């Protein structure tokens, strides 16, 4: 879809007003996936792999830079830190799906 600004966009929206309902998606794309437009990409393979949002990459980098994480299958302080993160993530996923940890 054309950029939300400019005469081509206004003309497009005048002809197809239903596309105005995608404004939230356009804003999300501009905020989290601007590299697609910057590099001229169209990404359609969401069943095989999803793109990382910019905010996800930044948060993961902060996590990695701010912690020393070891193999969660080992028994040492860095491994315990990784295990705690994994368990917290597991709990959040189970809570989201209202699933029992016993299942």
Walk me through what this model shows.
With 103 residues, the chain is an all-alpha fold. Helix content is 55%, strand content 0%. It has 5 helices and no strands. It is elongated. The model has no long low-confidence stretch (mean pLDDT 89).
Compose a concise summary of this entry.
The protein is mainly α and 103 residues long.
Tell me, what's the shape? elongated
> How many structural domains in the coordinates?
2
Q: Output the number of helix runs.
A: 5
Number of strands: 0
Strand content: under 5%
Major sheet description: none
Radius of gyration, CA atoms, in whole angstroms: 20 Å
N-end to C-end Cα span: 44 Å
- Classification by helices and strands: mainly alpha
- The helix/strand order is HHHHH
Low-pLDDT stretches: none
Mean pLDDT: 89
The percent of residues in helical segments reads: 55-70%
Any chance you could write out the topology, listing elements then pairs?
Elements: H1 7-15, H2 23-32, H3 34-38, H4 54-66, H5 77-96
